[in-house]
Amino acid sequence: MTVTIAVAGKGGTGKTTLAGLLVRYLIRNRPGKKVLAIDADPSSNLHLVLGLPLTQTVGDIREESRTGVGPGQSRTEWLNYAVRMAVEEGDDCDLLAMGRPEGQGCYCAANHMLRSIMDGIAASYDYVVMDNEAGMEHLSRRTTRDVDHLLLVSDASLRGMAAAEAMVGLSRELEINVRNIYLVINRVIGEMPPTLRAKTETLSIPLLAVLPYDPLLVEFDGQGRPLVELPDDAPISEAVASVAQRLLA
After folding, report:
1. What percentage of residues in the chain have a pLDDT greater than 90?
2. CB 18 within 8 A of CB 5
């Protein structure tokens, strides 16, 4: 069965970094298993973290389908072929980017077909890691399979916690089966402030992990290096490995 991990949070909390390092953990610690990374954030940065190219998104394909498909081919057949061709195949994992949200007009039929296609693709992988935007739009439209673990990421601020709290409510309104929801607080320097610790205790979801601020991330970003190249003993690498171990225990 496919294990699906979805990561969500407001912009700037480091959710894409977390998603990418979870993918790296799976690659290195689940040999022989197939891993699919889904970038469901319209900004599409997950490929940079993973060091993979990005040539086309599902959003691009959905727009192209509105202009018609080739003769002798149904729209479903064309979409199925196009989406599968959009999967970027890496040496250790594959990547599929959702891309931009819908434009004007009705996309109901296309979205219904895409849901089925995406389900079929995801089912062929052992692990799926999905990086979502703050509003979790793609999750709310059910463009992926049910989620085993949803990680809501906040930075070390009360504003970040307020955003995470709002996402808790949103996640429970989604018409999908989210089995486990956790809070992850990222970029913490030293000990977590008492006010922040107290705030975590008021939420209805458990605190899974507190991830440290790691200056090496800034160095890698400045050099344009994929974060999957971070050393295993980097503080953020060790912290994310602990998160993965708890989720997959």
Report:
1. 56
2. no
End-to-end CA distance of the chain: 15
Spatial neighbors of 207 by CB under 8 A, at least 6 apart, are 182, 183, 184, 185, 200
User: What digits encode the pLDDT tens for the residues 35-82?
Assistant: 999 998 888 899 999 999 999 998 888 888 777 666 777 888 888 899
Write out the residue range of the structural domain in which residue 58 sits: 3-248
Cα 16 versus chain centre, distance: 7
Task: Give the whole-angstrom CA distance, residue 139 versus residue 176.
Answer: 8
Q: Cα 87 vs. chain centroid, distance in angstroms?
A: 15
Whether the model pTM is above 0.85:
yes
Q: What is the CATH number of the domain that holds 153?
A: 3.40.50.300
3-state SS assignment for residue 84: helix
